[in-house]
Write a structure and sequence with these properties.
Rossmann fold; globular; 6-stranded mixed sheet; alpha/beta; 13 helices; 5-stranded mixed sheet; about 15% strand
Length: about 350
């Protein structure tokens, strides 16, 4: 069952090359004085009344479509810009052959927010519509919202089969295209949330709590934690975006929060299959053993009652979020009740915002 209705050129031409090369901005990769991404706010949240002390919240709900997924969406758009610029540099050698080059198109399994964010920015820059695979069991309002996007939609029962890369491309009629769930050459574990990671590290927390769905957000934190530690050691300085002593960076624990129930209200996070997770438990254990991350780093299951309570707390304090975005807070609360929180530690909760 599908809605594949938005047409786009199948092959490149010089008008497309010029448009993409000129209209999509270029920013320095890591210049804090000319940031690629406007930093989102961090604020103190007093949960003493609820019995959970003080935490800090980094609020991604102020992004263009209201979610952290706007960050990787921008990175996907910039891929078209860079392709166009590379074609322009080769213009003299491929001038008569440009129409033989296919327009690259992306396919993606999504629960809503990432697909919406990519659709938004692809439409803004007149890029090919994203091909989205969604679960046929998604709530009707989610399906209706997705079908209104600048996107081609394919619906299937994701509980019945673990889709591999070929399956995803075949289902979206995109065999020559790119599967965003798996395209490692895009460096998703490194560039999708690199500015967010450095913004968070610069808050000097002891523990950072993040929702864990696709795994990309946590993978970015772990990638840059290790990368910056090694740069400190080899180059005597880290990424210029980082403003944090090495000894503090070494001790930060990154805690991923995953719903215990597949039918959780945090519906953007659970999945029957997660074949495209890049960092598994062994990778995380290795980082802990090598002392590249804090001792509490890891992914934990969160009870549904904590997710519901955490979401209500966000609502009470007028923080724009959805249940999925509140799972980091939910894990903190669960650990607090288990007496696993050091009251002297600075806690940073990532609110990933509210989308579809």
């Amino acid at each position: 069952m599908s809605k594949m209705t938005i047409e786009f050129s199948e092959v490149m031409n010089w008008d497309l090359v010029e448009q993409w090369a000129d209209s999509i901005p270029v920013y320095p990769e890591n210049d804090p004085n000319n940031p690629e991404w406007k930093a989102t706010p961090t604020f103190l949240l007093d949960l003493s009344g609820e019995g959970y002390g003080l935490v800090h919240v980094k609020d991604e709900s102020v992004n263009p479509t209201g979610v952290a997924k706007d960050r990787p969406a921008w990175e996907c758009a910039s891929i078209y810009r860079d392709m166009a610029k590379s074609l322009w540099l080769r213009k003299s050698s491929i001038d008569g052959k440009i129409s033989r080059i296919p327009v690259p198109k992306f396919s993606l399994i999504t629960a809503g927010n990432e697909g919406r964010a990519i659709s938004h920015i692809f439409k803004k820059y007149d890029l090919p519509p994203i091909n989205l695979i969604i679960d046929i069991n998604e709530p009707e309002e989610t399906v209706n919202a997705l079908e209104k996007l600048y996107a081609n939609i394919v619906k299937t029962d994701l509980s019945q089969k673990e889709l591999n890369q070929k399956d995803i491309l075949e289902m979206t009629n995109n065999l020559g295209g790119l599967n965003l769930n798996k395209a490692l050459h895009i460096r998703a574990q490194e560039i999708f949330y690199d500015w967010l990671v450095h913004e968070a590290f610069n808050q000097k927390p002891d523990e950072i709590y993040v929702p864990y769905g696709s795994g990309r957000l946590m993978e970015n934190f772990l990638t840059w934690q290790e990368k910056n530690i090694r740069k400190y050691i080899s180059d005597k300085k880290a990424d210029p975006r980082l403003n944090l002593p090495l000894e503090h960076l070494l001790q930060i624990s990154i805690l991923g929060a995953e719903p215990e129930r597949i039918d959780s209200q945090a519906d953007k996070l659970p999945a029957y299959f997660k074949p495209f997770i890049l960092f598994d438990d062994q990778d995380v254990s290795s980082l802990i053993n090598l002392k590249f991350t804090g001792e509490n780093t890891g992914v934990s299951k969160v009870k549904e009652s904590y997710i519901i309570e955490a979401f209500k707390i966000f609502q009470k304090h007028r923080i724009t979020a959805e249940p999925s975005a509140a799972t980091g807070l939910a894990l903190y609360m669960q650990r607090y009740d288990q007496s696993k929180i050091n009251p002297k530690n600075k806690i940073l909760i990532i609110n990933t915002g509210k989308g579809i």
